[in-house]
Design brief:
single chain, TATA-Binding Protein, five-stranded antiparallel beta sheet, about 45% helix, about 150 residues, alpha+beta, DUF302
Length: about 150
């Protein structure tokens, strides 16, 4: 019975999970902290607001658990996010934007974020919304700068 419930949950939850195609990964040089520092500098240098920097590994350590280095930056620009939320208030579930910087099992550091077009695809957002194109371009530029390659 437990397996049946688990399978049913997976079928129901599957549409809400991001597929690998929806996640953009950028290989970085340097460690997680340095890469995140570069990302935060690029974000603030571009005039966006940093709302939070979450250190998942520190959170795990606070409860005596171990997690590889992993930090999340939450940031945005009201000039881009507000029009999205005006078109569909549910865009507020996805905004502000987020970039995860993490170290994989082989020790490689990555920046990862969800493709804005895919992220907002199920909402009442026009397919040709200029702000989605601008979010996509900004994320590519910011993560490239942070990657240090």
């Amino acid at each position: 019975m437990k397996h049946l419930l688990a399978a049913a949950f997976c079928l129901v939850a599957a549409p809400a999970l991001a597929s690998d195609d929806d996640i953009i990964k950028v290989q970085a040089s340097g460690d997680v902290a340095t890469t995140m520092d570069r990302l935060e500098e690029a974000v603030t240098g571009a005039g966006a607001t940093v709302f939070a920097r979450v250190d998942h590994a520190a959170g795990a350590a606070s409860v005596d658990m171990v997690l590889d280095d992993e930090q999340l930056l939450i940031f945005g620009n009201p000039k881009l996010g507000t029009p999205a939320m005006q078109d569909d208030a549910l865009a507020g579930l996805y905004l502000p934007l987020r970039v995860l910087v993490y170290k994989d099992g082989e020790g490689q550091v990555w920046l990862a974020y969800e493709d804005p077009e895919e992220m907002l695809d199920e909402l009442s957002i026009p397919d040709d919304a200029e702000y989605v194109k601008m979010m996509t371009g900004a994320l590519a530029k910011l993560t490239s700068a942070a990657a240090g390659n």
